[in-house]
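testing teh design pipeline on a random one, pls ignore if ur not involved
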């Protein structure tokens, strides 16, 4: 059987009065994968999800599921299961009652429904808890009930809107792994909205990074991290050093205090402004002035050792201090006020759009 749940968004726009929540999104998302919509508060992620679910009507554009245009189809006829941030469980029903809710509406008989509920309880590790009240469950268990309820009708598409945001950090990390394993086991196409980059990196096959109603970049998590397309993506996912300079005749980029070579070149014309992103962990430090290529001289302004990570902030005369990070075991012994050379390896220099 072909994988189900391939989604295509075409020219999707949503206005709320003067607010352009989604400003023209074209996306093709493959079936069977977990895809995250990642971006800061207000960037339009939830509005996108709600248009896919049919809870919001697009101002313009179309939504296709497995090739069928579902833009005008009501939510309950879209073959979509959804878990909201609030979970929206029915407090007066038991765990089993909640999970069986959608199944019963479809007119499935008692026995068949009970078998399916038991199967789903097993799937989310709540065996034997079908008779419990919702109020007798922990936050993580409630999250599992909401998941089981959304999956009860074996939908083509599973939508999650910040599903773990109400949970404390440890439980959240545990459930991220659980949800990811469940999604892989079922092979169900899943779209998750999150503003937490660690969550997106942990769980996704593909990350869709959004800002101000637009898609900035789509790619596997590591690709988006290592090859950010824009300064926004580089800053939003992890932290980075952004170096602004101008293209030199020899192909390098002239920045304050030096010239940097970018592996693969910059494709910029001489004199063009170029923005380079280099991750702190790819940036290296040496004591004093050295003649290493791709190095800039600076002064240490702040050092911190977090046990698992060592960070050094260096004033190189650029717009912002350069951050150098690494394992404390490899720490170069420097202190505040020391003169150092910061090296940006050409292969770690990524040209980004501003
Ligand atoms: P968050 O992470 O805070 O939930 P988000 O990225 O999901 O943010 P949306 O909820 O999609 O963002 O909102 C996008 C923009 O649209 C915001 O400016 C928001 O204020 C606005 N908006 C969303 N829903 C409505 C509505 N029903 N009426 C008016 N404006 C809305």
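output:
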């Amino acid at each position: 059987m072909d994988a189900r749940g391939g989604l295509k968004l075409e020219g999707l726009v949503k206005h709320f009065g003067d607010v352009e929540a989604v400003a023209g999104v074209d996306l093709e998302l493959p079936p069977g994968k977990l895809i995250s919509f990642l971006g800061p508060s207000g960037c339009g992620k939830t509005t996108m999800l709600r248009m896919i679910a049919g809870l919001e009507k697009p101002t313009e554009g179309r939504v296709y599921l497995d090739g069928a245009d579902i833009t005008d189809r009501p939510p309950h006829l879209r073959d979509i299961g959804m878990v909201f941030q609030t979970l929206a469980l029915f407090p007066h029903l038991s765990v089993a009652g909640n999970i069986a809710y959608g199944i019963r509406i479809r007119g499935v008989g008692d026995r068949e429904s009970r078998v399916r509920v038991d199967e789903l309880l097993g799937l989310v590790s709540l065996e034997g808890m079908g008779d419990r009240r919702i109020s007798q469950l922990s936050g993580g268990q409630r999250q599992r009930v909401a998941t089981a309820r959304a999956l009860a009708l074996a939908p083509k598409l599973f939508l999650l809107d910040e599903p773990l945001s109400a949970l404390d950090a440890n439980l959240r990390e545990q459930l991220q792994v659980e949800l990811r394993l469940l999604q892989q086991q079922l092979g169900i196409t899943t779209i998750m909205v999150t503003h937490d980059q660690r969550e997106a990196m942990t769980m996704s096959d593909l990350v869709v990074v959004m800002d101000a109603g637009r898609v900035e970049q789509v790619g596997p998590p590591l690709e988006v991290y290592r090859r950010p397309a824009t300064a926004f993506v580089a800053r939003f996912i992890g932290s980075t050093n952004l170096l602004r300079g101008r293209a030199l005749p020899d192909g390098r980029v002239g920045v304050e205090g030096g010239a940097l070579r970018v592996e693969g070149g910059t494709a910029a014309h001489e004199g063009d402004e170029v923005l380079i992103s280099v991750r702190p962990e790819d940036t290296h430090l040496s004591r004093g002035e050295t003649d290493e290529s791709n190095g800039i001289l600076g002064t240490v302004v702040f050092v911190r050792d977090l046990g698992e990570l060592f960070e050094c902030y260096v004033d190189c005369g650029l717009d912002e201090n350069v951050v150098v990070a690494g394992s404390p075991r490899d720490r170069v012994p420097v202190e505040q006020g020391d003169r150092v050379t910061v090296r940006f390896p050409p292969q770690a220099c990524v040209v980004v759009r501003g």
